[in-house]
Amino acid sequence: MSTLVIGAGLSGLCCAKALVAGGSNDITVVDGADHVGGRVSTIEEKGFLLDRGFQVLLDSYPAVVRHIDIDALEPCAFDSGALLATPGEPPKKVSNPLLGGSIRDLFALPLGWKERIRLAMMAAGILGSPEERLSLARAGISTYDYLRSRGASEKTIDLLFRPFFAGVLLDDDLGADAALFRYYLRRFATGQALLPRRGMQAVPEQLASHLPADALRLGEKVERLLIEGDGGQARCHGAILTSGEELRADAVVLATDAHAACTLLGEKPPAFRETTALYFRSKTSLYSEPMLVLPTVRKPLVRHFVQLTNINPELAPDGEHLVSASILNPTGKTTQKELFETAQAEIASIFPAAANLVSLKAIRVPQAVPDQKPGFWDRWHATLRSLPQGLLLAGDYLHQASIQGAMESGTKAGQAILAGGKA
Length: 423
Prior knowledge:
Helix content: 25-40%
Distance between the termini: 17 Å
Mean pLDDT: 91
Number of helices: 13
Largest sheet: 5 strands, parallel
Structural class: alpha/beta
Low-confidence stretches: none
Shape: globular
Oligomer: single chain
């Protein structure tokens, strides 16, 4: 049985890897980019290795454990926790007591005892939930409303939850479905955040190494799907490239991002969240801890930043430091120069040595993740029911916008083909 996988991101590569593991080698993976990985990619700029947006690999993701030889990536680990930073005050270290951190860090936070107990009960419920329930549940309310319903005050949300989870969800208002918050809380609480020594591009490259040598066709964009028949009799037989070449297969997996998938299906794309990573270089270190820094002010330009060379020194030339600052909100007509200047000023209000930072590169990711408000998944249920025969979808938007979601979705599509069904 032949399979055409459209998209060489994590979903498409995991689908192809699952097919190979199941004994199917008649696979073609086509992608318009000149590299595998989709959004998970790394570029070199003046001797620095820059990921396409701030990204980490969590060793607590089940799909990562299943598919990736983590040791082969030569991973560099963050300390589990963060530095909470208020301008004009020394940053407060908050470490994860589940992974060797000090419980005293949590007790040092300005929370009342009743609120501590309520939040501890919330965390215990999340950490103790069965894996299946945590992965499949949909809360139906926003993360913000969920936290308020569990007893978190506005002050605590702004101090403890928003600075970190706004960056994870790319949603400063915490409007994403609370199921995502619960899932990420468990993953970050029980696992380490890692950076591959040669950048995040190493993850998809390792996945691609499991495929037959002639399976990958990069730099070839699909123009439209090859669908014959109408209604319930419609069947997808392959795709037509922009070059005019037809690629036919018994099964087709559309493993692109949500925008490209909707374009090929003739549907309206969902709304997206964007992010911009501002990269700075410096010969002066800002701080020493291998941790993310979380500004606690409301709606900062920089949602979080990190001196990446504290975690992985090989991302920069000898004698240099690399700092990544993540911006969530659309910048409107702000020029790139103004963006760098404002970001540098915010960082310098916490670490004065940031006055020595030098702008390196801005990487904008306009469609980083779909907007995942409550009810987001409903539209995809209807899409899945109306797909032509022979066509399957794979992508993080079907599960959760994360590395786990992408890899799990692709795996399920491959397994469905092997089983002769639909994902």
